[in-house]
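Thread: ABC-2 type transport system permease protein, structure

OP (GT): Posting the sequence first so everyone is looking at the same thing. Length is 247 residues per the record. Can we get the structure tokens written out before standup tomorrow? I want them in the notebook alongside the other entries.
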Amino acid sequence: METLKAVYINEMFKISKKKKIAISLVFSFLSLIVGAIVVYYLNNFAGIRITGSSDFSIMVLTVLSYTLFPLFTAFICIDMFAGEFADSTIKLTLTGLAPRFKVFLGKILAIATSIMANLIVVMILSLVVSIFIDGSVSNLVKIVLAYIMEFFPQLIFALVVVFLSNISKGTTSAFMLSILVFLVFNGLGMIFPNFKSFLFTSTFDWYTLILGGYINFSKILRVFLILLGYGIMLITASYYFFEKRDI
């Protein structure tokens, strides 16, 4: 455990030093500000009420879950795998005392922590903006649960990018493949709606299952099991290629 902890701390430190991550966070913050200005103007001056105090945080989650969150996730994963293999900095980690599995697991845990941290920051900022817009926040529990639920599909997308990064020769190819897979899966969901529920991209908005008056727990469990299946397969496949990759 001490070895895994050391690897995890090291990976978190490296993530904190990446400029792309800071840029992604800035864009998330700016998108919140722009959204707040638009909503405030429409609600108070244009006479068009497009969102309430509880809906703004959900509206932000809906928009960012298909845009900046996946981009943020892709940047982290590609830099931590394809990027480190491309510039050979991963040699310092793999030639140390930690076995490859713990290095791999430490990276995955660091990625998961970063995704959750990003969601928490955006949620807190959106709640603050909600108070600014309407003076209060309702349905706080559902908002918190929605952001927690969003963590799981974003983590699955991260594992997809990790897998692609481990079979790619460079950061550019890994990034392009990640975009292609994201677009293809979304496209398949529109072309074949009957199979949409089996595509991980269709789960990006599964938090909507708890927002209505009736909560379908069986459907929530079904989606969770699908995500769990994706996670097991992707971790297994990603580690296989990570283990076989030469440095």
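GT: Both are above now. Quick notes for whoever picks this up: The CA atoms of residues 182 and 201 lie 7 Å apart. The chain has one domain: 1-244.
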